[in-house]
Structure formats: structure tokens, C-alpha cells
Design goal:
Elements: H1 13-30, H2 37-54, H3 57-63, H4 71-79, H5 85-101, H6 106-124, H7 130-153, H8 158-165, H9 173-189, H10 201-218, H11 226-240
Helix pairs in contact: 4-7, 5-6, 5-7, 6-7, 8-9, 8-11, 9-10, 10-11
Length: 241
């Protein structure tokens, strides 16, 4: 299970399992000591590190990319839900990969804990329950919806949109999109979003000031949230410019 996140190792999993069993049996018989899971995990990490140092993992990942969670993936998952533990771990691993690709997204941050709990349950159990299948399908459906909305709004704008919606979830979509478009247009006209602006303290201060003014102008009824919104929007702006 510890190596299943690495698809190119599938052909060698049986050999690795067999060698691990021999390693544990040897220590129990001749050294009278047990090998706990943490020790095995540390050995697997060393194995992975050795492979990454000797094999062009990036080239393999480019030729055989991890499956993307989208609407087509969701349809296939509905038609053919995983029934074996190995198949279920493959599904949850794909979902975990999506979370890793979006480490700062409020949406994925909110999902992370439940996804990790589901992954741990699959590692420890030998059966796949209907509840686990429903949870994985729910994760995939929500991710697919998130991606559809990201594409609709635009990847260059979506982190800012999401930063606002995470704090003001009840505010209408069109109102938030108008704020994002107006803010980006305003900052670009002022010449504040040049390459490397994030490294200049004076420019960062000016950008924060302009964000605050725009928030007060367009979300006057949310004054109690302005400071939180300003920080959230500023962080998101740093990711997309």
C-alpha cells in the first residue's frame, strides 16, 4: 500500500512484498525483534528515493500522467465503482493527487481531512464498504464541479474568486466575478502587477491599500469582514500574477 501511489512500481509490488516479508521473518527468527509499520514505511521511502535518483520519474509521469478527476471520470466511477481494496486505493490516490496539486485552495483544504481519513481506512481495512464508495464518489463529484467552475471563470481569476467566496459564501457569483474583474483591471492600469511585484515592500503595501479600497467600495455591507477579505485576496493575487 505504501508504494501504490507510484504507478510505475505496480509490476514490482509482489516482489517488494515478498522481500519485506522475508525481512520481517528474519528479524523475528534470528534477532528476536519485530518490525513495526513505521520501520517498513521508512524502508519504502528509502526505496522510493533510490528509484527517483536512478529513474527519470518526471519523464514517466509526463508519458503516463495521473488520471484527472473530471466529469468523465465521475461517469466511469458511477458505472464501475471500485469493489476491491486495491481498486479503491487507486481511486482515493487519484483524489489525493488533486488535493496535492491545489495546496492553497480553500475548497481542497476543506476536503483534505475527510480524504485522508478515507485513505487511512482503506489502508487498514480488507474490505470496501458502500459508505466508502459513496464518499469517494462524492469527493470526485465535488472536485469535478470545482474544476468546471474554475474553467468557466478562468484559471487566472479563480483563486481570487475563491478567496472571496470562502469568506462570503452567500454573496452572489456575479457580484464576486465583477469584483475580481474590476480589481485586476484597476491594478493593471496602475501598473502594480508587474513581474516580481510581490518582492517589493512598497508595492505590496500599495496593492493591499487598493484591495481594501475596492472591497469597501463593492462590499460596503460586509465591513466586518474587510480585513479578512483583504488578506485572503492579497494571498490569492500573489499566486496568479
Amino acid at each position: 500500500d505504501m508504494l501504490k501511489g507510484y504507478p510505475f512500481l505496480i509490476d514490482y509490488l509482489w516482489d517488494y512484498t515478498w522481500l519485506t516479508k522475508i525481512y520481517i521473518a528474519y528479524h523475528k527468527k534470528f534477532e528476536k525483534v519485530g518490525i513495526d509499520e513505521l520501520k517498513i514505511e521508512s524502508l519504502s521511502k528509502k526505496t522510493i528515493k533510490l528509484i527517483q535518483e536512478t529513474i527519470d520519474v518526471r519523464e514517466i509521469e509526463e508519458k503516463y500522467p495521473t488520471v484527472s478527476i473530471d466529469e468523465e471520470y465521475v461517469r466511469r466511477l458511477r458505472r464501475n465503482p471500485p469493489r476491491t481494496r486495491g481498486a479503491a486505493i487507486d481511486v482515493i490516490s487519484n483524489i489525493r493527487h488533486e488535493v496535492e496539486r491545489h495546496p492553497t485552495s480553500p475548497f481542497f483544504i476543506s476536503l483534505r481531512k475527510d480524504i485522508e481519513r478515507t485513505y487511512e481506512e482503506l489502508r487498514l481495512r480488507k474490505i470496501v464498504t458502500e459508505d466508502t464508495i459513496r464518499r469517494m464518489l462524492s469527493f470526485a463529484e465535488r472536485i469535478a464541479r470545482w474544476k468546471r467552475e474554475e474553467e468557466e471563470i478562468g484559471r487566472d481569476k479563480y483563486p481570487i474568486y475563491e478567496a472571496v467566496k470562502s469568506i462570503l459564501p452567500k454573496v452572489g457569483k456575479d457580484r464576486v466575478i465583477l469584483f475580481v474583474d474590476t480589481l485586476l483591471s484597476h491594478l493593471n492600469k496602475k501598473g502594480l502587477l508587474f513581474e516580481g511585484w510581490q518582492q517589493q515592500r512598497d508595492v505590496r503595501r500599495k496593492v493591499k491599500g487598493e484591495i481594501r479600497i475596492m472591497l469597501l467600495s463593492m462590499f460596503r455591507d460586509k465591513r466586518s469582514k474587510i480585513d479578512e477579505l483583504m488578506e485572503s485576496v492579497f494571498r490569492a493575487l500573489g499566486e496568479v500574477t
